[in-house]
């Protein structure tokens, strides 16, 4: 029998004098118990008794590699005080889930096209402490300024690199432990691990996240300037090293009725080293109240030797609006899981993503939109470019229109551009419709540049190489142009140009 409730600070009844007998939440305890006897009636006048058959050992279902990571994450957390942490509910749930969750393989349907084995071949070590002041001075990534910004380095919130002045009354942005209002604390704790629980990586984040960053917007409040969340991975190892430092940043956004905010998430490597190996395992939960509005920009440009796995979970109430614009170009393995749950009528959801995959890169998007109420509206556009023969892109998009989601208008489109032979694109668009009064559509295309388009430009005096560059950039511009900020659009466009053509001079916007 596996006992998941032990914490590292607890002891077994006979271990008070021996600290080495502490039991972790991830140490399976196996007991041997005889099975009870039972009888099987064979006729009204005859029964046959079966003798008890002792069970010598119950086979543990736990994955040793998963438990090893979970234990190291648990040990890396700062020692708790006498009062229980508000995150304890989330950590307990995640701990119990990990006891029976194996590491994903290509045999598992959600990971059929995504290979995570290179993580398993390395020694995963959690980032266990705040970065030193000297390392913060050497980051050199914040030459631009934003009115509202929050900086997390290796999963830790750094106040000295953040700027939060000028917030409207009632808005809170910061660490969960620093919330001064009991009302806001109670409201935030309601959503900790309460909905949208994800897979193994979601649970690992729940165990290993050192703190929770909270963004709270009260009823009827509109935050004029976007909040820029900058995630910096500063601790990493060389490509030849067998160590893989892992960080677990976690953010919860709660927007009450009629509230509005814009959020920009930017994931980057520190120090400008594009060969550092590290693993960013991130989670963001967004709760949007009735008539609330959230615009979400997400940019991922981490090291080409890193692993980037992210969960974004959205809960939308009646007449709310959520818009995501994503550009992902970094990471040896980059996977984004987006789950949207419409829990009210007249909701609006928009997902626009652009992925660029180069040598030995995997860019993966798994999205799910669930519509349960009338007059829901959703649009999803996924575009990707595979620019190398060893590059790979995965798209698994699911839109589910349930029985009571009548008069729903849902559309999904994925377009992939392959620039080199033997490059790989795996797309799996999925539209499930149970309601009968709906307007839904989806489509998919995978191809190289069309000859007619190239001929059209060449007929106007443009050489073939220039024509190809122009068409490739315009392919991704449809998503990039949806960023709400002109400075952000220019910055991302320059970055994509640099990746497609290294001769483009590097500039900082």
From TrEMBL:
Q: Which residues form the SUF system FeS cluster assembly SufBD N-terminal domain?
A: 82-228
Q: What organism does this protein naturally occur in?
A: Centaurea solstitialis
Segments forming domain SUF system FeS cluster assembly SufBD core: 245-475
What ranges does the record give for the region Disordered, renumbered to this chain? 1-54
The record's InterPro entries line, in alphabetical order, gives: Fe-S_cluster_assembly_SufBD, SUF_FeS_clus_asmbl_SufBD_core, SUF_FeS_clus_asmbl_SufBD_sf, SUF_FeS_clus_asmbl_SufD, SufBD_N
Biased composition regions of type Low complexity, renumbered to the chain? 26-44
Which GO biological-process labels does this protein carry? iron-sulfur cluster assembly
Biased-composition ranges, Polar residues, are 11-21
Q: What is the official name of this protein in its record?
A: Uncharacterized protein
Report the Pfam families cross-referenced here: SUFBD_core (PF01458), SufBD_N (PF19295)
